[in-house]
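To: structure desk
From: M.T.
Subject: fold request, one chain
Message: Could you run this one when you get a chance? Sequence is below, nothing fancy, just the single chain.
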Amino acid sequence: MFRRLTESLRRIGGVSLLAVRASLRTRVFAAMLALLAVCVLALPGAVKGDGTPAGELYILLAYTLGFAFGILCLATLWSACALFAAEIDSARMQLSSVKPVRASEFWLGKWLALLLLNAVLLLAVYAGVYAQVQWKMRANGWDAAERPSSRRVARPILPTPKEEARQAYAQMLAQKALPEGVSEKTALRVLESKAREKYDVISPGAQAGWRFRLARPVGVGEAVTVRMKFDTEYSTREQVKGVCRLRCLQAPEQMVEIPLDDFTLNEIEFAVDTRAFLGEGPAGGPRRTAAGPKGLRDFELTFHHTGDPKRASALMLRFRQDVVLLTSGGAFEGNLLRSACVHWGVLALLAAFGLSLSACFSLPVAAFAATVLLALTMVGNSVVRVVSEEDEKDWRNRIGIWVSRGVSEATSHAMQAEPLTALTRGERIDLGVLGASVAWNVLLVPLLLAGAGCWVLRRRELADAD
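Reply: Done. Structure tokens follow.
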């Protein structure tokens, strides 16, 4: 058993080594390096920001990494489509059928070769961007608040959108308020979508409150940052005023009040030192609280709209997305590495998908199918977000909507993590998100695609190899 496994691993390694060597000798690989170098080095200078450190970081992290990752996605997909298809079309695959190399070993060896090449290219791209970030910090003298960060995100304790949709559906069913001809599945999907985007409306004189539980308690002397994003009428923003109150439930006798009188920007962010909840200023020493040595974890945030009812308009905010507490979440370098791992997982999925298409079709057909499905994935997610009930009632739109939803459901797990959004907003990519991305994109889906690709491959060219 062990000997067979060792021989199988040796054959897989041989296939991977040959595939890597063949790729390094091609002009396509050299062209890819040159294109990525131009993207990383020239794009930040070509795109002009707003002149602020945040704008510079956004260009480096979102634009540069986004464009480079897009190039790698297309190159990985098309290269994977060519690996089997080109060998089958040129009859080179027949030379391997006399050797004791199984279809699964061929598939896995070439897939690992693509993973290795993608890892090298991705690390080179991220290293180039990180070097530019460090250079800009030193050249421009950014202070600590302007430098890239990695902060844990805590959102309000609320029912999940699915739970809220169930509650709303049960209430509508009890009141006999359900529209006619709408199935339960359709109604729940619409209600869940509305729950995700649901707004809190805070009129002048009113207030709203939210409770939070941090995944990691904060210690004495650490900062808790409140970030709120409002929508309000532009012409009355100067008249909007309010007071934010942050209270730690483990030391409820102390409360921090932050008056807000500048709503010219939609997003407001301020930090609170945890020593304020202990009755001490920043220079004072800590004293014992109900939190004990484990730190502070439970918080309550309230916002009171104190604007003039005759002149100020109401504020709206999506409480599931626009109200968060931010705490320290490690170094930016670790967050950058986690982002690279998430991107590498997506490239692994694309490589597996392209290899399976390459085993099934010729190169032109495989490349065309891969490009069409990739476009459907991008368009399908957009269609699912904007489709309305009226659109769905028209029979001419149903096929397109069904296809879009099917593609969106199939790719939702793969596209769930958004590392560049987290990087640009200074939010930590949690290990749970990283683990789910790797498990889905590197293990589960490639395993299913490998099974399908190897089944076809054995019947096309390697029927005698076993």
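Reply (cont.): The beta strands are 151-154, 200-202, 207-218, 223-229, 242-248, 255-260, 267-273, 296-305, 315-317, 323-328. Let me know if you need anything else for the meeting.
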